[in-house]
Structures are given as structure tokens and as C-alpha cells.
Amino acid sequence: MNKKGLVIQLTGLSGAGKTTLSNAVEEYFKENNIRIAIVDGDVYRQHLCADLGFSKADRIENINRLGKHADSLADDYEVVLIAAINPYNEARKKLKEIYNAHLIYINSDLDTLIQRDTKGLYKKAMLPDDNPNKINHFTGISDPFDIPIEADLVIDTAKLEIVKSSELLCDYIINELIARKLFDNFLIELDPLIKFILNNTSSEENMKVLSKKKHYLMNVFSLGLLEFYEVIYQFSENTTSIFDWLLQQNGKLELVHKIKTYNNLVDNKEVDSKYFNKIITDEQYNFWEENGYIQLSGLIDENECDKVVTYICNLLNINDTMSYDELNNIDLQGIMVNKFDYKESSTLRNHELIKMIYEDLYQSNDIISEIAPLGFNPPVSKSYSFRGTSLHWDIDFTKEEFTNIQGLIYLNDVDADGGAFSLIKGFNKEFTAFNVDAQNAQSILESLLKNRDVTPLKGKKGDLILWKETIPHAATPNHSDVPRFVQYLNFVNLI
């Protein structure tokens, strides 16, 4: 990130208040030990730009020189204000492109400017052409002034008093300085994290810290696993590019908010080691331990389920009552919705009651949600065959422990033959004895399908189903008349 000071260009007609505001800001910042320099266009006309006239080319050259000088001052000052009429959009744009100079438009209507004009310059500029006292090349009267089309801030000094105007300008500059420092610190934080993700090497203690930060990052920025790693590997040689991607995706204000949220998570290091159940009863917890899953009803607002269903339907250009004979063209990855906006599923994904249930089952206060997909399982038909997987585990077999808890929410009523989620009850207690690994997993699953009961779990809209990752599970073909809609969930235990 750029470590130079902040360059800001104030543009506006003569008398709008550029110099007055610059002086007020300068006084305030010096009182608060913020190094600031003012590049006043009128002053610099006397020496740096004394050889220039008032043609368009000369005016643009004047601004070019002021910009270059301001950039040199930015090596030593935190803030540099350029206060100049600067009438042309192309000159303002050039300063922004070369020096990242923020554009503040100091606006005022002509009547107010004339009233403020103690020297009578506007009146002289408005005299007939044959009047010897007429001032020629006066911006806003006889010379053009392009209204700024991409100003970062507009301050109307005809409507606001000088105190309020200077407060707005000070607030803007301070927020930009805070954002810059925040971004710089975040970039420093991001660099070792990205290296850890790419190389998966660090000290054991550091690995735990960095692993937590990775989950925090994915949670705060609503990054899906595949999307996250795609971005990381795409910009693996340049952490700044990853930051720029995050900035592009979120916008500056939203990025500031998310970085602050991320920092709060990282800084909140105190986690109560003692855990007491918040929702789950002893009976429910014992069932969970015995069977490896739990199904709970009545926790989720049905209206929230309907919102996600509507979103899925809009994405797929379908409705929940249509005929499904033409589904071959729908963009699905198995029964997963291939593309979706993570924000649309955030209400259920971050549901406080669901989080507390996960905490109860993990017996941990230190958990965080991750992005999980949406599910759409339509009825089978002559033209549509079930696209889901058979019995399986979603396990990274390189891990030493298998403690992750998976979950889903039924977004509509689901009968046993309606594409219900299914599993082998209690296999969590047998998983270790089977010595399951990546090589033998498939053969074990085939044997289980022949010799064990696979139980479909019917349920109501809003039902929450959670299962241990050691439980073999699968969606089932939908032989009903309506599709099955699902939101998947995943909370990671950070301890």
C-alpha cells in the first residue's frame, strides 16, 4: 500500500470557500498533531506558475504543477490540500489517476458568490465586452467550469455555515486517514496468512492462530471455500492484489466495516474454557452421542425459509409448483445450486439459535460459521434423473481427528420419499474400528449399503438436522410432486 500522505484537491469557483475551509482544516489538524500542508492555487500563481496564462492549456498545466508539488509534499505530510479553482474534469481526473488525489467539490450558487465578492470581481467579469474594466477569462462567467462528475464529497457553502462545512471536510479526511491506516495494517496481517494457506507450514502454535484467522477471514468476507482458494492461488505472488480484489468486491466503506469486524474477532482472545449447554437438553445430547445426529423443529421462522426458497427459484428461473420435465438445462452441481449470493443465505447461516446449538454439540464457545451452499432436489421424471451422490462422507482424510459437525435446514416440508436426507444411525461409534481412510472408504460404503439400514429423515419446513462428519449420509431421489429445498450449514470449532 501507498505510504505517502493523503492528497486532496478542493475544486470550486472563486469565493466558494476553498481557502477558508483549507485554513480551518489546517488549524484543526495542527492542534491535533496531524501534519498537513496547503497548496493554495492563488499563492502558487505568483511563483511556481507565474509564467502561465489563463488559456485552457495553461490552466491544465497549472494544475499539473500543483499536483506534482503536492505529491512531493506528501512524502513528509500526512495530508496535502490543493485549493484551486481547477475548472476542467480532465485535469481533476489526471490528478486522481496519477496521485490518487481525492476530489472535493466546494459548491455555491452564483448569487451567493456575488454577495461575498468584496472586490467586485464577478460584477467586473459580467460587464459588457467593450467596457475597459471588464475582467476576461473569469471562470464561471466568461470561462467554463466543468461541474465535477465524480466528486468524492460535495460541500455546499451557500447552504452550510463555515463551521459545519469545515466539520464535514475534517470528518472526511480523518475517515480516509483511518481507512488508510486500517488497510495498511490489514495488508501486513494478510501477508503471513496467505503464505500459510499456500504453504500450510508454520510452527504448531502459529498454525493454530493462522488457522483461526483463515476461518475469521472467510466468515467476515462471506467467502466460499472454492472461491476463496481460487482468489488466493490466482494472486499467490501478490498479496496486494488479493486486498484489491476484496476492495473491489466490497467497496471502501463496507471493507472498512469488515476489517474492523475481523480485527475484533482476532483480538477477542479470551474464551471461557468451561462450557454449559444453552439449549440442548441432556436427553438430546445423549441421543446425539449415541446416534451421531440430531433433528430439531420449531427454531426457524418459516418466513425466512420462504425467502431463501424464492431466491433459489429466481436464480434457477423456476417456481416451486412448475412441471420439472425441462430441468436438464438448469445449472446445478449435483443437487447443489451452482451460483448464489452468499448474502441471501446469511440470515439462516448466522442464526443465533443455530449457533448456540452448534456450541452445545461442540461443547465450545469458540466457533464460527462458514459459507455453505444451497440445495435443490427436484422430483425425478422421464427427462430428469436424480443428480445427487450416493452414500458418502465429506471428510478430509489427511486430518488426525474427525470432529466437524455438518448441518442443513429443510426449507419446505419433506416426506421420506421426497428427496429426504438419509444416514446410517450410530455409525459414529464404529468409524474408528473400521479404519476408514481415503483408499478404503468407497468399498466400506458399498458394504454398508448392502448390510445396514439407511434411514431417511422426513421433516417440516424449518427443521434443523445436524450430524457428525463420521456419519455416512446422502440425499435421496425425490419421488414426490414437489422439489426439496435445503440450506446447508457449517460451523467450525476453533479450539
Distance linking N and C termini? 33 Å
| Percent of residues in β-strands | 5-15%
The biggest sheet, with number of strands, parallel, antiparallel or mixed sense and barrel status, is:
6 strands, antiparallel
CATH architecture classification name of the largest domain: Sandwich
Reconstruct the topology from this structure.
Blueprint: E1 6-11, H1 18-31, E2 36-40, H2 41-44, H3 56-73, E3 79-83, H4 89-99, E4 102-107, H5 110-116, H6 121-125, E5 153-156, H7 162-199, H8 204-220, H9 225-234, H10 239-250, H11 252-267, H12 282-291, E6 293-296, H13 302-316, E7 332-333, E8 336-337, H14 346-349, H15 352-362, E9 367-369, E10 374-377, E11 405-410, E12 421-423, H16 441-451, E13 455-457, E14 464-468, E15 473-475, E16 484-493
Parallel strand pairs: 1-3, 1-4, 2-3, 4-5
Antiparallel strand pairs: 6-14, 7-8, 9-16, 10-16, 11-14, 11-16, 12-13, 12-15
Helix pairs in contact: 1-7, 3-4, 7-8, 7-11, 8-11, 10-11
Which labels suit this protein?
16 helices, 495 residues, Rossmann fold, Jelly Rolls, five-stranded parallel beta sheet, six-stranded antiparallel beta sheet, 3 domains, alpha/beta
Describe the protein's architecture and organization.
The protein is α/β, with parallel strands linked by helices. The protein has helices at 18-31, 41-44, 56-73, 89-99, 110-116, 121-125, 162-199, 204-220, 225-234, 239-250, 252-267, 282-291, 302-316, 346-349, 352-362, 441-451; strands at residues 6-11, 36-40, 79-83, 102-107, 153-156, 293-296, 332-333, 336-337, 367-369, 374-377, 405-410, 421-423, 455-457, 464-468, 473-475, 484-493. Strands 6, 9, 10, 11, 14 and 16 form a six-stranded antiparallel sheet that branches. It has a five-stranded parallel sheet with strand order 2-3-1-4-5, sandwiched between helices.
